[in-house]
Each structure stands twice: as structure tokens, then as C-alpha cells.
Amino acid sequence: MKTQRNAFTLVELLVVIAIIGVLVGLLLPAVQAAREAARRSQCVNHLKQFGVALQTFHSAHEHFPRGGVNGWSLQPSSFTNPQQNWTDDHGSWVVRILPQIEQQAIYDSMPNLFDPSVFDPIGQWINVDRNGEPPPPIPIGRCPSDGFSTGEPFFNYTGCTGPIAVAPFCGAMGSVFDLDLSAMGIDVPWVDAGFCAAAGPGGDLDACPETGMMSRVGYRKISMKHVTDGSTSTLFVGETLVQSSAHSLDIPRSTLKYWAGNDMGTAHGGTIPPINWPVDPDVENCAQPPGAQFWRRNFHVTMGFESNHPGGANFALVDGAVRFISEQIAFETFQLLGTKDDGQTLSETF
After folding, report:
1. Contact partners, residue 281, CB within 8 Å, separation at least 6
2. Which of 30, 34, 108, 160 is the most buried (most CB within 10 A)?
């Protein structure tokens, strides 16, 4: 008797392989989407914690922390030495809320940030107290969707400065956006994200308005009474990508101040650049293609909000709620959200 062997034919084997390939092709996007949903949820949780911490700080001090503080912002009337005042670093808003985000030990290791007589307490903390070591990472300081150099204590969240004018670093070739919002009833200040020479010495602080909730060297203590547009419709903190701005990448790395210093990208979120403006990390100068309009040192385009979440970015509002805002949001709506006291009604939901 002949024995009969059961086996796959070549055609059957190829059909099975094709079916497996189709199933894997269907499964991988679903797995990736599930992972991104988890990362986005974790990012939302980080922003919620920052929102609560900022409100808790306000309850204790009757004002919100300034986006960043240096010698000029502590004493603008005595602004006699620009370079000295600029390097007198009293820290970012992040250092001020360390006790509210369960980082009291880090806060206690710092010099007195509120004492104007202490020169450059952040520099002293890094270079003397920590012997040139960078600050420790903040557990909720990185969005898990941004995997850039996770071994360094970079920071993925930036305070909203609202619509402010930042001159193109590369001159005309780096200019992109129209900075005249007078038709919208918004006066865009030329304050370089907070710095305003008109305020000192003996200058008029009213000549230097702060349109948003923060600025990188804020000289006003903003409280809830200043948020006349309402806490539910005013942006406070949003996402940024480390590689998208020299203020988030190069300056923190070169100074070793990362999230602690006043000019490290933690209060540099303007609303004039669209969400997720495509900064090219490979561009190294003004003239290198694809152009200065995509260079991370052209702060005219990089002082904005970015994320790796598809279609937009997460934001914490003043009331502590967190919203995902589409990168397709109407320009006017985005400006009104970024301004705390424009007195206008939003024309659409967001």
C-alpha cells in the first residue's frame, strides 16, 4: 500500500503568507494608534498637573508665577546695565511651582529666587551648588511623544505669551507672518517675548503690554483679576518640541539650565506662528535650504507651539482644563485664546 502525504502546495503557502501580511498590515497601525493614544493621555495628565500647580501657587501668593525672572524684571526701574541684568537669572515659572508638583527637595536645594540682592541664583545653583551638573529631570516635564534625547532634562511645555512680535532673526528672508492685528482689536507689542527696553530706566511699563499669561522675563505679577476674558477661554501652557527651537534645545544645553533658567523655552509660546509650524532640525543657518523660515534659530517662527500628536497639540487653560487644539484652528480664534484681556468674544468653538 502506498502512503499518502498531506502537505501545502506552493500556491496555498503563498496565500497563507499573503493573508498574514495583510493582517499584520492592519494590526500595526492599530497598535501604533493605541500607543499614541496612551502617550497623548499621559501628556494631558502632565498638563493637568501643571494647571493645578499654577492655581495652587496663585492661591498661596495671590498671583501666578511669572514666566521667567531676571534682574531687569525684578527691578525694571533700575535697568542700567542690560547685559548684567539679563544674566541675573532668577529662574522660570517651573522652578517656582516645584513644591506644587512634589519636587520640594529640588526647590529647597536652590538659593533664594525671590531676593533681588542674590545675583544669578540659577547660575549659582548649577555652577556652584551642583558643580556644573545640569538640573535633575522633572518627571512630568517631557511629553512621551517627543523621544528626542530623553537622557537630558529637557522640557516640553511652554507658557503662553499670546500674540507678541518677535523680529525675524534672518531679516527679510526669515519673515513669514503679518504682525499687524489691529483689525482684530489686538495691539501686538514689540517686546521680544517679554523684554522691553521702553520700560527702563525710568520708562513706562504701560508701553510694554503683556498680552498672554506669561513672558520670558515678565515684570508684572499677573493674577486672576487680569484674566478678564475668562479662565475657560485663555491659554496658559502648551506643548513644544525640543528640536523646534534653539530656546528649547541649544540654549538649555549650552548653559546647562534646561527647565530652570528664565530663557530656556519654558515661556516662549506665541500664538502668531501656527501650531506645528514645520521647523526643520537639519537647517543650520539662514541661507541653508529649505530656508530661514524653517530654522530653529529664527525665533519669529519658532516661538510657538508644537507637538508630535497628529493634527494639533495639548493646552492647559487658566482654569486648569486641558484641551487638544487643532493645527487648523482659525488664526483669529487662536489669537483671542492667547490674549487674556482682549475683551472680545470667540467667534467659534475650539
Report:
1. 243, 244, 296
2. 160
pTM of the entire predicted model: 0.87
Express each pLDDT in 154-208 by its tens digit: 999 999 999 987 777 888 888 888 777 888 777 776 555 455 655 555 556 666 6
* 101/242 Cα distance (integer angstroms): 21
Beta-bridge mates of residue 270: 162
What is the residue whose three cell numbers read 512680535?
165
Instruction: Specify the length of the chain in residues.
Output: 350
Q: Which three cell numbers stand for residue 231?
A: 479662565
Using one digit for the tens of pLDDT, what is the confidence trace for 25-71? Answer: 776 666 666 788 889 999 999 999 999 999 999 999 999 999 999 88
DSSP string, 220-273: S---GGG-TT-GGG-EEEEE--GGG-TTTTHHHHHHS-TTTSTTSSTT-EESSS
Residues 6+ apart with CB under 8 A from 95: 107, 110, 113, 122, 259, 260
